[in-house]
Design a protein that fits this description.
Strand order of the largest sheet: 1-3-2
Mean pLDDT: 92
Number of helices: 4
Shape: globular
Oligomer: single chain
CATH topology: Arc Repressor Mutant, subunit A
CATH superfamily: Winged helix-like DNA-binding domain superfamily/Winged helix DNA-binding domain
Number of domains: 1
Strand content: 5-15%
Radius of gyration: 15 Å
Largest sheet: 3 strands, antiparallel
CATH class: Mainly Alpha
Length: 110
């Protein structure tokens, strides 16, 4: 059975990218694949959303990029977290956990 795919709420993509990059440098396609894999194919990041988000995070100084060779020996841009990005990940993750806990409380209210 194919899992239902969900649209990401505003701002969630940045958090997912930062979290994925906390595991180590990756190129764009690998970031997308990792999110899809970890979410059991529920979350899919479209390239039309991924690359603008990566550029936005790079402009904010949360990630940095350098060119390298991918697994299939193709030229690819590899992204990694900066120190500022690590701090931002902690901030974003804390805010997400508070938000989802509060929404959960409202949904469970009798």
């Amino acid at each position: 059975m194919t899992p239902e795919r969900l649209d990401l709420p505003q701002g969630t993509l940045d958090l997912l990218i930062l979290r994925t990059l906390s595991l180590g440098p990756q190129h764009g396609w690998a970031i997308s694949e990792r999110v899809q894999q970890i979410s059991d194919d529920v979350l899919r990041i479209q390239q039309g959303s991924l690359y603008p988000a990566l550029h936005r995070l790079e402009r904010r100084g949360w990630i940095k990029a350098k060119w390298g060779a991918s697994e299939n020996n193709r030229r690819a841009k590899f992204y990694e977290l900066t120190r500022t990005g690590q701090k931002q990940l902690a901030t974003e993750q804390d805010a997400w956990e508070k938000l989802t806990a509060a929404v959960g409380q409202v949904l469970r209210a009798v």
